[in-house]
């Protein structure tokens, strides 16, 4: 029972026109996820200004063709993406109790062989539509003839992240572009979006220091098995449960204390899929999110 969530995020400068951003994450596709593919395709009716995909598109290699079908209606739109660990390696059975550990990866058998997934094809499929590949790099996209700055990293859960230095900004941006060529964030600088699959604090802190206005992540499945009125029990990373349950927060400010909030908004998608071995969600429906970026008051 997937749901489309709608959220307003006040990250634009006064006078800027609102932008809509469709956030997809954690599709975990196989050859048996036709209903999920059809639901994702139906979101094309929204005609968002920007599409963001924060990874874990596959569970098995058989999900590659369904992924192509799911993303086909969106590839003509401005978009950007990062990869997740399940774009690189197949899902394998693991005891669900492993997620109760401080770091679930401690329960993994280092000798276990895991099938590689066709990650080059996953990457190239998204690139084919002109989506910006933000694997440990910076970039930009054009929306309604104006530019948005981007930064992203490869998946921190697989220790593949290397945060790009400011000097790596493409020369295409030019040394001092005219102000009216950029969508402006609420601080007056060009709007800056950050993408990461797993929202580890080391990456989020780097993005906050880098003046990112809105960071987008997935990976956590919203906790997947949640308690009504309490929310996520685990996050599968070092991010606190409350930010995963709330989905939208400010980082690293203390939730519930606006005066301590940082300038950066963080959206953690609960995603659309699960492991094929644990196809269960409790009090946490599969989701995609349409974020409307608005001028700050």
TrEMBL record:
<dbReference type="InterPro" id="IPR029052">
    <property type="entry name" value="Metallo-depent_PP-like"/>
</dbReference>
<dbReference type="Pfam" id="PF00149">
    <property type="entry name" value="Metallophos"/>
</dbReference>
<dbReference type="GO" id="GO:0009245">
    <property type="term" value="P:lipid A biosynthetic process"/>
</dbReference>
<protein>
    <submittedName>
        <fullName>Metallophosphoesterase</fullName>
    </submittedName>
</protein>
<dbReference type="InterPro" id="IPR051158">
    <property type="entry name" value="Metallophosphoesterase_sf"/>
</dbReference>
<dbReference type="GO" id="GO:0016020">
    <property type="term" value="C:membrane"/>
</dbReference>
<dbReference type="InterPro" id="IPR004843">
    <property type="entry name" value="Calcineurin-like_PHP"/>
</dbReference>
<feature type="region of interest" description="Disordered">
    <location>
        <begin position="156"/>
        <end position="180"/>
    </location>
</feature>
<dbReference type="GO" id="GO:0008758">
    <property type="term" value="F:UDP-2,3-diacylglucosamine hydrolase activity"/>
</dbReference>
<feature type="domain" description="Calcineurin-like phosphoesterase">
    <location>
        <begin position="20"/>
        <end position="222"/>
    </location>
</feature>
């Amino acid at each position: 029972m997937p749901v489309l969530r709608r959220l307003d995020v006040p990250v634009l400068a006064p006078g800027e026109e609102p932008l809509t951003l469709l956030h997809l994450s954690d599709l975990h596709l196989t050859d048996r996820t036709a209903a999920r593919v059809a639901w994702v395709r139906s979101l094309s009716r929204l005609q968002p200004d920007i599409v963001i995909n924060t990874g874990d598109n596959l569970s098995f290699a058989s999900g590659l063709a369904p992924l192509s079908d799911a993303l086909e209606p969106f590839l003509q739109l401005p978009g950007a993406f990062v990869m997740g660990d399940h774009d690189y390696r197949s899902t394998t059975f693991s005891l669900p109790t492993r997620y109760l550990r401080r770091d679930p990866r401690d329960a993994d058998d280092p000798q276990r062989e895991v099938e590689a997934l066709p990650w080059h094809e996953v990457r190239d499929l998204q690139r084919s539509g002109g989506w910006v590949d933000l694997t440990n790099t910076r970039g930009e996209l054009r929306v309604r003839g104006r530019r948005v700055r981007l930064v992203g990293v490869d998946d921190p859960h697989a220790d593949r992240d290397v945060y790009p230095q400011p000097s790596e900004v493409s020369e295409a941006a030019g040394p001092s572009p005219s102000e009216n060529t950029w969508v402006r964030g609420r601080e007056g600088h060009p709007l800056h979006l950050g993408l990461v699959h797993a929202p580890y604090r080391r990456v989020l802190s780097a993005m906050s220091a880098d003046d990112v206005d809105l960071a987008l992540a997935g990976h956590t499945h919203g906790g997947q098995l949640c308690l009504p009125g309490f929310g996520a029990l685990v996050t599968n990373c070092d991010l606190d449960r409350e930010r995963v349950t709330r989905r939208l927060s400010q980082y690293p400010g203390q939730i519930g204390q606006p005066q301590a909030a940082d300038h950066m908004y963080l959206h953690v998608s609960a995603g659309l899929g699960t492991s094929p071995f644990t196809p269960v969600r409790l009090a946490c429906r599969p989701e995609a999110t349409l974020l409307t970026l608005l001028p700050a008051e």
